Structure formats: C-alpha cells, structure tokens
C-alpha cells in the first residue's frame, strides 16, 4: 500500500491563502502556547483545561520547540481537510495518551473528558460515566487500557462514540478561526 498522498493542483494557492491568514493572526510566524489559547478563545481558569490545551499544542508542535510554525500548522490543516478517519483517530489517540506509553488508561481518558466538559459545558453524564461507558464499549480484552487498535476499531464502529471523540477537540474550529479571524472580545 502506497502511503504517499497526491497533492491537489490547487495546493500552492491554498497554501498561500492559509499562509497569509496565519501570518495575520500570528505575525511572528511562531505561535506560542499563549497565542494558541487566545486564538482558540478558550477561557483559561480551569487547570484541567490548561493542561488539555497544552496537550493539543504539544501535538501540533511536531518538532517540540515550543512554537507552532506555519508548516506544523499546515500539517494540522491537512489532517482536517484531507485526513482519513483512521489518520484522525490516530491524532486523537496521541492526544488522549498523555504519558505516551501507547495505551490510553482510564485516568487519561477521564482527565480529557473532564477538560472537555469544562470547555463545552456539562451534560447529564459525568466524565466518570463517560469514561466507563467508553471502556465498556471498546476495551475488548477488558484490561483497563485501550490500545491503538482497540481505540480505532471501537470508535470506527460506533457512531455515537465517533461523534463524541470528534467533538473532544474540533480541529475544524482552528481552521475557522484562521479563516475568519479571531473574535474580538470587547
Ligand atoms: Ca514547532
Ligand atoms: Ca498512556
Ligand atoms: Ca484493552
């Protein structure tokens, strides 16, 4: 299987378009964690949320130099626009696997869901209930950890879960902000 992706004809124009948008939002060309938070317009009072945004930032920051540059930004845009479902799920898996040991445990999932609830508002299901539900559904061998395989297979075959995961960090939001410019908070 060739994993090489063909670059569409309009790619340079599109790149240029995003480049000018990116530079307008971030004139230095290097987006810091602080600017990233401001760009996403996420209120930063909850330590869980701070931790979560930091994780998202670290995943964008591919070379780990503490900034998101244009190329890293474009890599994320590409994932949003052209990424296949399992590529996106791999991205989410990386986001959830906080200690990077290749498995998502309950504590990791719980901390993500708590942060999401703090950002998106609380639902009638607690973060604990969510976490337990997810493990009940997709932890096939019942060892309390989700491997990448369990995660991808499980989420792909469950529409509700897929929606939940996609909402946990809406990548297209980042795109929207860059497209339309940041909302000016008065
Ligand atoms: Ca970087
Ligand atoms: Ca882990
Ligand atoms: Ca398992």
TrEMBL record:
Sorted alphabetically, which keywords does the UniProt record give? Calcium, Lipoprotein, Metal-binding, Myristate, Repeat
What terms describe the molecular function in GO for this protein? calcium ion binding; calcium sensitive guanylate cyclase activator activity
According to the entry, every stretch annotated as the EF-hand domain falls at 48-83, 84-119, 126-161
Which is one Pfam family of this protein? EF-hand_1
GO cellular component term, pick one? photoreceptor outer segment
**Spans traversing the lipid bilayer:** none
What the entry lists under SMART domains is as follows:
EFh (SM00054)
Q: Which PANTHER family match?
A: CALCIUM BINDING PROTEINS, GUANYLYL CYCLASE-ACTIVATING PROTEIN 3
Question: What is the recorded name of this protein?
Answer: Guanylyl cyclase-activating protein 3
Q: Which organism is it from?
A: Manacus vitellinus (golden-collared manakin)
């Amino acid at each position: 299987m060739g994993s090489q992706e063909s670059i569409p004809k309009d790619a340079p124009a599109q790149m240029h378009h995003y480049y000018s948008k990116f530079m307008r939002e971030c004139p230095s060309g290097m987006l810091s964690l602080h600017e990233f938070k401001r760009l996403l317009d996420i209120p930063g009072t909850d330590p869980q949320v701070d931790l979560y945004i930091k994780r998202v930032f670290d995943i964008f920051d591919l070379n780990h130099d503490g900034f998101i540059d244009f190329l890293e930004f474009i890599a994320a845009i590409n994932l949003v626009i052209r990424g296949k479902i399992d590529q996106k799920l791999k991205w989410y898996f990386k986001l959830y696997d906080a200690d990077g040991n290749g498995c998502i445990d309950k504590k990791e999932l719980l901390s993500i869901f708590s942060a999401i609830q703090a950002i998106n508002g609380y639902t009638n299901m607690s973060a604990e209930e969510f976490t337990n539900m997810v493990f009940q559904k997709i932890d096939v061998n019942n060892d309390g950890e989700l491997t990448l395989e369990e995660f991808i297979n499980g989420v792909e075959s469950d529409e509700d879960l897929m929606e939940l995961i996609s909402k946990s960090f809406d990548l297209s939001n980042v795109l929207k902000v860059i497209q339309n410019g940041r909302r000016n908070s008065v």
